[in-house]
Write a structure and sequence with these properties.
This protein has about 45 residues and is mostly helical. About 65% of the residues lie in helices and about 0% in strands.
């Protein structure tokens, strides 16, 4: 995958914990994420 995309790939030692941590980070920034996903690009 890394060769095809040119992006670094990391395999988590504990994938479930990685998902939980990532979800927590998204929820911490929920207002920003909502604005980002509902923006029509005009400000």
């Amino acid at each position: 995958l890394s060769e095809e995309t040119g992006l670094p790939i990391h395999v988590a030692e504990d994938p479930l914990s990685a998902v939980v941590e990532g979800t927590g980070k998204v929820l911490d920034e929920l207002e920003f994420l909502t604005k980002l996903t509902t923006s029509d690009g005009r400000g």
